């Protein structure tokens, strides 16, 4: 995987390059090891400092980081025996939205999540993580299947939004998203939502109704992208940083107004620095909250989900 560097990460990357060069030289010159240790300490301190002062717009950039882990990365590290299920049984299989059965510490669960892909070919195949109507209908099919067997549904959200093409509108995009919202509102099993990257518009909301909503520390969740908001309000997409701030798309603001229930801490420097560490944090959150939700009866669970929605923003 090629390493991408954000603008505010460049000073950190410069120290990392020095460390790498010294490590190569230290093979023949062990006296350089103390200098390497000193640089590693400086790099860690600088990373902590930079990431503790990120603006909302910089957090949006981290949420979109090309090296950020995706749904399939989390499935590989958190779950066992994943068996992907395909198709909506009406039109096609949408590769931008993956789903299937798996086990979490031995217990069966249903996983559904956006997948953006890595290299160019895979990104095109997966439509850059922007589902078409058949993707949402596949998700609905899997949710109803999970309900039949009383399996918890776990969704991973990471999308710029639903695909804004003519084809999607022709095949009933808005109806497919609305149907998912209705199904998730009354689904008779536990639903846990994890926003891992950017949660954009209805494309994210179609997987976003649940009993417990968590978001990674540098994840975002918004009704539209900051660029779209800036184009609408100021007719100038360059004002996206101001829009991001005003829209309160960051995790801490979302927690304050009750849209999310939990912020999952990321490794120093973001989730893209350590896939195993962030996967472990997500797994701990899932296990804790599945156990907590298991205390509620079906009727109480549905009522709690309804009341949770009513309290947003209050």
From TrEMBL:
Signal peptide: none annotated. Residues 38-292 form the CoA carboxyltransferase C-terminal domain. Its EC number is 2.1.3.15. InterPro entries: Acetyl_CoA_COase_a_su (IPR001095), ClpP/crotonase-like_dom_sf (IPR029045), COA_CT_C (IPR011763). GO terms for biological process: fatty acid biosynthetic process; malonyl-CoA biosynthetic process. Pathway: Lipid metabolism; malonyl-CoA biosynthesis; malonyl-CoA from acetyl-CoA: step 1/1. This is Acetyl-coenzyme A carboxylase carboxyl transferase subunit alpha. The gene is accA.
